[in-house]
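FAQ
Q: What does a multi-component entry look like?
A: The components come first, one per line:
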Amino acid sequence: GESVGLHLPTLSVQEGDNSIINCAYSNSASDYFIWYKQESGKGPQFIIDIRSNMDKRQGQRVTVLLNKTVKHLSLQIAATQPGDSAVYFCAENFGNEKLTFGTGTRLTIIP
Amino acid sequence: EPEVTQTPSHQVTQMGQEVILRCVPISNHLYFYWYRQILGQKVEFLVSFYNNEISEKSEIFDDQFSVERPDGSNFTLKIRSTKLEDSAMYFCASTGQGFGNTIYFGEGSWLTVV
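Then the predicted structure of the entire assembly, as tokens:
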């Protein structure tokens, strides 16, 4: 079952610096991964996705890296801005209908 | 940009009462989902819906829960007899083509059961 009151990992980054958020996923059969951003009181907002046949994908200021060998996913945000402060979730999908979300990391951008 | 819209944004209900949460998915999407997030916890899958039937559901989605697409635009989640532990943020989501395509989430409906 789920733990009550999960303690979120936190990351504080100076504005303008780059940030790296890490995620360990659970299912070696997962073949589609997504990063979502969630601001307080709002729904998950899609950032970037990657399929298992890739190991890197770039978007605007964001890069996702996938290491299937160790089941690890990372999100790199370049030149962070105050608006990047949020909780970031990775989610995995293994060919069925549901996304399985990770615990989340709270990113705080220090002005 | 098209978005998933949800109503109400916040509802307070007495334990044992029925609640209906409403969602309008993105108009050309075919796959619909409900997720929930208990305060401070992960986002959890509840149910997926395609072609007017449930395609997958989690163990959370017991007989107290039901979903419906009553017309061409709305997608609802009904909780028949709410319990205190149903208090959570409920997110509706949709996607156009199912697996491997971007799933867009609504802003959520915050349900408080007292």
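Q: Is there any commentary attached?
A: Sometimes. For this entry: The two ends of chain B are 36 Å apart (CA to CA).
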